[in-house]
Amino acid sequence: MHLTLSAALDLSAAPEPQGGIAGWAAGLVEAFGGPGAGAAIALENLFPPLPSEVILPLTGFAASQGVLSIASALFWTTLGSVVGAVVLYGIGAVFGRERMHAWWAKLPLVKASDLVRTEEWFARHGTKAILLGRMVPVFRSLISVPAGVERMPLPVFVTLTTAGSLVWNTVLVMAGYWLGDQWDVVGAYVGVVSKVVLALAAVALVGYVAMRIRGRNRERP
C-alpha cells in the first residue's frame, strides 16, 4: 500500500516541508506523482531560483516511501528538464541572432567582436556546453538560450539535454532515495556548489568589465 508523501514525511525524522519550495514540490508530487515532479522540474528550468537540489532529492525520498517508483521519478523529472529546456531554446530561437547583435551593440563596455568570438566558441564547443552545462547549477537553465540563438539542430539539442539531465537527475533523486529522512542534506551541499559557481561568474564579470574600462582608457588620446 502506497503512502502519501505527507504521511511519509510525518513518519520520518525530517520536518515536514509545510511551506516554501519544499512544501510546494511535496504538494505536486503527492497530488500528481511523477507528472507532478516533472512539472516542478520544468518550472525549475524556466525559473532557476527554483532549486532542483530541493525538488529532486525530495522526489527521491518520496520514491523511497512508495509514493512513486524510481523509474517514474527519473522518467518524469528528465522529461520535465527537457520540456523546460526546449522552451528556453525556443525563446533564444525567436530572439534570433540579429536581435542579439542589435541588443549587444547597445551595451556599454562590449564590442561586436566579443559576441562573434562567443558564437565561434559555441560553434566549436556547443555540444559539450549543452551536455556538461546540464550538470552545473544555474547554468543548466541558461545554456539553453544561446543554443536557440545559434539554432543548434533541435534533435541534437534534445539528445544532449536528455543525457545531461538524466545524469544530474539520477544523482540527486538517488541521493534523496538513499538518504531517506536526511534527503534535505543534499540541498545544503549542492547549494554550496551553486554559490561557488555564482561567485566565480561574478568575479569573471567584474574582471571582464575592469579589462574593458582599462582598454577604453588606453584608447583615449
Automatic annotation (TrEMBL):
It is found in: Cell membrane. Keywords: Cell membrane, Membrane, Transmembrane, Transmembrane helix. It is a multi-pass membrane protein. The chain crosses the membrane at residues 73-96, 156-180, 186-211. The keyword Transmembrane helix applies. It holds the Pfam family VTT_dom. It comes from the Bacteria. Residues 50-177 form the VTT domain. The keyword Cell membrane applies. Its main location: membrane. Belongs to the DedA family. This is DedA family protein. It comes from Streptomyces anulatus. The lineage of its organism: Bacteria, Bacillati, Actinomycetota, Actinomycetes, Kitasatosporales.
